[in-house]
Amino acid sequence: MAKNVDHEQRKRELADAALTVVETTGLDGLTIRAVAAEAGWSTGALAHYFNNKDALLQAAHHRVIERILARAGRAESSSSPLMRLRETLLSTLPIDDERYAELTIWFAFLARALARTDFGDQQRAGHRFWISEIERHISAAQVAGELPEGKDAHHEAQELSLFVDGVYLQGALFHADGMPPSELIAMVDSELARLAGP
């Protein structure tokens, strides 16, 4: 059992190294050689876990999901359901270099998902879970009286998801031009104010 845990830990470390490579050199730099160098491994040792770029990309994508879920989990300690919803939405936005690298991986994975069933299944499962988490926070905020009860939580979760997808795109396209994190955060706050309205 310990050996299996060790292998999983090594895979996470390699996936983190892949994310670091993307953060520093861009997606074009994501190669077996570059990730091995970042992790301090030989290419042969790394190939024992990941034998091509697609395998690295899948691992990095899974690690992105783990990181987002960890941030969203920390949001559970926020003072109110509405603040938990806000922190969950912000957990995915490119408001720092780490999250921008994650977004780069996300879009690269999405491009693969359009053409490959295995990637597509993973992407759709992640998206369904994401909407369910948003819906859960909306419902809790309604029960707490922070959001109107008359609004359909599932529909609003889908709308928020579409909104965040647009913010992803703007953040990705204009990151290099200096779109400040404060502007992305203000967009989220504005959308939540809309949701809280009559």
Structure explained in plain terms:
By secondary structure, this protein is mostly helical. Helices cover 77% and strands 0% of the residues. The protein contains nine helices and no strands. The protein has helices at residues 2-25, 32-39, 43-47, 53-75, 81-90, 97-113, 117-143, 153-174, 181-196. Helix 4 (53-75) runs antiparallel to helix 5 (81-90) and helix 5 (81-90) runs antiparallel to helix 7 (117-143). The model has no long low-confidence stretch (mean pLDDT 84).
Question: Briefly, what is this?
Answer:
The protein has helices at 2-25, 32-39, 43-47, 53-75, 81-90, 97-113, 117-143, 153-174, 181-196. With 198 residues, it is mainly alpha-helical. The mean pLDDT is 84.
List the helices and strands and how they pair.
Blueprint lengths: L1 H24 L6 H8 L3 H5 L5 H23 L5 H10 L6 H17 L3 H27 L9 H22 L6 H16 L2
